[in-house]
Structures are given as C-alpha cells and as structure tokens.
Amino acid sequence: MLTHLKIKNYALIERLELTPNPALNIITGETGAGKSIMLGAIGLLLGNRADTKTLYNPEDKCVIEGEFNLSGFIIKNLFDEEELDYEDHCIIRREISPQGKTRAFINDTPVNLETLRRIASQLMDVHSQHDNLLLGATEYQLQIVDTFAQNDTLLEKYKLDFSNYQKAYKAYDELVSDAKNSKKEFDYNSFLLEELQKAKLKGHELESLEAELNKLENAEDVKSKLQQSVEILNGTEQSIISLFGTTLANLNAISQYGEHFRQLRERLNSCLIEIKDITNEIEGESEQVEIDNEKITALQVRVDTIYHLLQKHQVKKDTDLLKIQADLEVNVGKVLNLDENLAEAKAKVEKAEKALQKSAEALSKSRLNVLSTIEAQITSLLIDLGMPNAALKVENEFIKPSPTGINVVNLLFSANKGIKPQPLKNVASGGEFSRLMLAIKYILANKRALPTIVFDEIDTGISGEVSIKVGNMMREMSKSHQIIAITHLHQIAAQGAVHYFVYKDHSSERTVSRIKELSKDERIMEIAQMIGGQNPSIAILNNAREILEKHLQE
User: Can you give the residue ranges of the RecF/RecN/SMC N-terminal domain (predicted)?
Assistant: First the structure.
C-alpha cells in the first residue's frame, strides 16, 4: 500500500506530502484547488507522459515520490524479472528536469518507463473518468472478464503459444516464398554452380599461377642468360675464375715480401671462393629451368578460365569466387531439399497450432465459466445502487486466434425495464457509467492482489441513498485494500477513516495548492458545508456531526 506521497514543484503544488491511512482515505476540496493535480502527479508514478509545462517553478526540477509497503504482497518475482533489488519498503520516484528530461527510479535504481509501468501498475489502480470511456472498449471488457476469472496463468500460456505459432508460421511462409523464387532461378544457379565446381578453384591460386606462367614463358631467355653467365665465370681459359687463379698465384709468390701482400692474397682468395659458389648456384638454376610448351599452354588455359569466371561474376579475387560457389551450393541445396524442409516447417506449424488451440480452449472455457457470475453479481450491485431495473448481459463471440485469445466479449446494458440491453456506449449515462464501473471495481477488488485503489469522483451523477451505498461499498473494499477517494458527496466523505482537505493558499505572491488532514471538528464543518453551503446552520452542523459519529462507531 501507499505509505507516503511527496510532490514537489508540480503544477500549483510547490511542496505537498501525504501519509495515507491503510483503509479509506477521503479527499475533498473546492473546484480547482488541486485534487486532479494530485492524480496527475500519481499518474507520473504510474508511467504517464511528463511535460515541463507542469513545473511550478520552471527553473527547478519536479520530483514525485511514492513509498509503498509491499509486505505480504507477492510481487518479488516481478522485481526479479526486471533485475531489481526487492525490499518490503519500496520507493518509486519520477523526476522532470527544467530541460524536459525525465528519469524514473525504483529503490534508487534507474528504470525505463516500461519497467516503471509494469511495477507500478501492480501497486496502484487509479480510476478516473477516462476509465468510464475505456469501459466501452471491447479490449477493456475482456480484461474485466480475465481479471474476474483470474486468468493470469492461462493468458500468459496462451500468449506464449500464440507467439510460438506466429514464429513457426512466419518461418514456413518465408520458406514457401523462398522456394518459389529459388525454383525460378534453380536451373541458372545450377549451371553457375556446376561451372564453378568444374573449375576446382583453390584460394589464392591465381597469383601463383601467373608467377609460374611468367617464368615458363621466359624460360629460354632465362636459361640462355644463365648459361652465358656460367661461361663467363668458368667456361674458358680467360674465364673470371681462371683469371682470379692467375692473380692469386702472383700474389702468393710475393706474399713473403710483405704482410700487406699476404692480406691482399687472403682477400682475393675469399672473393674467388664466393665467385665459385655463385657459379655453382647459377649452374644449378640453369639446370632447373625447363622449357615446357605444353605446361605453358595448360597454365594459360587455367588462368584464362579463372579470369573468365572473375569477369562473369564481376569480382576481383578467386577467393570471392569460392564465396559465390558456397552461396550457390546453399541456394541449390535448398531447392534440392525443398520438399523435406517444407515438410519439416509445416510440421512445426501444425504442432504449434495444436498447442495454441489447446491453450485457447482452456482460456476460453475459463472465461465462459464466469460470464453468468459476472452478470449476476454486477446486476445485484446495480440494484443496490438504485437501479432496480438494471440488466447486464456479457455477450461472447468466438474469433480466430488473436493476441488476446479466441473470444471477444461485449457488455450489454439496460437501466430501464422492458429495454433490451444494448452496447454500453449507446445506452449508459454518466451516472450509470459511474455506478457500473464502481460495481465492476468492487467485484474485481478481491480478484487482484492490488493494495491501493484510487477513485476520482466515481460518485458523478449519484446522490441520496445511492451515495450512502457507494460509500458503504468503498468502506467494505477498504477492509482488504487501501482506498483513496476524491468525492463531492458528504455521504461518502463521512465514511472515511481519515479525511484530507485540498485548498488554495493565497498568502504568498503566487497561489499554491496545499492539503491537510482534518480533525474531527474540521471534518464536521467540511461535511456540513458540503451539505448546506459555506455558512451551514446549527441544524446542519448537528446533522453532519451525527453522520460522522455514526460511521466512526461502525
């Protein structure tokens, strides 16, 4: 339940704090004093859209903070799913900066609005005139049935099966579409694949082929030049090696006449050794050079084949051709295995459809089982609320599986005898809508583990004895739920465990909204003014005292 509410810098509220009672809390006040502003602030805690225009001081940030006691309330699993720390004492905070940036926190952990809405919606239910409009929507009416039937588990299972069916059907549908396109291109792709496979491509082959071909095409010239080099180095009497030998012999003959002659001899000898080694290598290279015209022709054919494929597929590397070949193998393989893949995908669709149908029937059965009970309970409550001829009919229509099931329900209503129930939007007045919504909230109260319910002027269009019964219903609901009710009726105001009064304070340069908890005497005066106006008579004051004391003793 809500244990403390703090509102700072919001609309006409400079700063407001409220500590609600666990039972029935009544809020009254003059029109425009700020009651609806409080609801707007609470709406921010529930994830409603924020607007910088609502800032009391446009240069300061707005802070809305609600403290909740979650003890005895099974919600820890929801915190776990959102990866939030759980404590029995929970603080939800919403901030709006002057620049328009909004932030949300749960137990001081930043959260997005989706998470905020998911958590806060399980802590508070705010009923306003907007809910009366929602009541005419079939989606909202179906939610009423599901809440009454406590279909959370069945609905979650159905939604999971519906999602699985959609995924399976989408996969099958895409496979059918791909198959149609693949069949059209199958022959051409098969030809391209066969051509690439026949080429027996290897990665990075072209570069080595061109290098080898270049060498073979110039083999005669290479071999000739190598042989000439060998001849010059060691082929005749006047070869470089023989000349080096003669020179070395001369230096050797005079080496005894000086150390520097011996050094020159050694240096020349080292050069001669290197030249002989080079000559041997050149001879070896010459022997390895082959003149093979057949191999040249084969290499030229191979290179031309690869270049032809590169040009045909508009790529630059032979490795790109291998990627294209792999893709073609997949595409052609899909067609070759088409019947098997389609059969497998279709089997998955049929399996998912059976699971969906099973969960849809279970959910539908649970819904249908409570329709007559909902009709009877709401009709009985409407009679107690001063509508003796009221009749409610919950009409069901079966549809194809949708995100919410295979049912569409429609609440048909008549407030007058002899008039056939019609859709709500066609027949219900404002007061009838309010009483009908109260009856719905009443029967749903014990079906949901919802600790706090807020009613914003749900007493619209009622008075007299009916308003007393409305107050009784709220007080009954407050035995198991915290109720916060904004009202204009003294019959309801007198039934609260506590009574708060919202008023405008004009004592400063700028008007602000404030709220205070009324004492017993202040409650008597407020109820008397609600009955008889600004200056109530002694008789009205006594009447107000009698009404209040009667409810305080109950």
Answer: 2-506
User: What is the rounded distance in angstroms from the CA atom of residue 392 to the CA atom of residue 414?
Assistant: 7
Q: Concatenated DSSP letters for 433-450?
A: HHHHHHHHHHHHHTTS--
C-alpha dist (Å) from residue 426 to 133, 392, 417: 12, 14, 16
User: Which residue, among 502, 465, 508, 506, has the nearest Cα to 487 in the 3D structure?
Assistant: 502
Q: 8 — phi, psi (to 5°)?
A: -130, 130
Cβ neighbours, 10 Å, residue 1: 22
Q: Which structure tokens are listed for 211?
A: 């290098």
Angle between helices 259-288 and 219-234 (to 10 degrees): 150
Maximum separation of any 2 CA atoms in the chain, in Å:
154
Q: What is the DSSP string of 393-424?
A: EEEEEEEEEETTEEEEEEEEEE-STTPPPEEH
Q: Could you give the CA distance from residue 333 to residue 182 in angstroms, rounded to a whole number?
A: 10
Question: Around Cβ 60, how many Cβ atoms within 10 Å?
Answer: 13
Residue range 408-433: average pLDDT?
82
Q: Are 446 and 480 in contact (CB under 8 A)?
A: yes
Answer positive or negative: Cα dihedral of 20, 26, 30, 34.
Answer: positive
Phi/psi for 18 (5° steps) reads -140, 135
Q: Is residue 438 a contact partner of residue 385, using CB atoms and an 8 Å limit?
A: yes
Strands 24-29 vs 498-505: parallel, antiparallel or unpaired: parallel
Q: Decide: 439 and 390 in contact? Cβ < 8 Å.
A: no
Matching residue, tokens 């749960």:
106
The pLDDT tens digits of the residues spanning 297-313 come to 888 888 888 888 888 88
The amino acid that residue 272 corresponds to is L
| Partners of residue 90 on adjacent β-strands | 68
* Parallel, antiparallel or unpaired: strands 109-111 and 102-106: antiparallel
Specify the amino acid at residue 310: L
Q: Say yes or no to pLDDT of 346 above 90.
A: yes
Give the three-state DSSP class for 336. helix
The more confidently predicted of residues 337 and 521 is 521
Contact (Cβ atoms closer than 8 angstroms) between residue 32 and residue 50: no
Could you tell me the two tokens for 139?
A: 């989606």
Element (H, E) at 7: strand 2-10
* pLDDT tens sequence across 82-114: 999 888 999 999 999 988 899 999 999 999 999
Q: Strands, E, within 97-223: which ranges?
A: 102-106, 109-111, 124-127
Q: Which amino acid is at 220?
A: E
CA distance 235 to 239: 6
Residue from 90, 96, 87 nearest 7 by CA:
96
Distance CA 103, CA 125 (A): 22
| pTM, entire model | 0.66
Starting at the edge strand that comes first in sequence, how are the strands of the sheet with 109-111 ordered? 13-18, 2-10, 62-69, 89-96, 102-106, 109-111
* Element of type H or E holding 24: strand 24-29
Q: Name 358's Cβ contacts closer than 8 Å, sequence gap at least 6.
A: 161
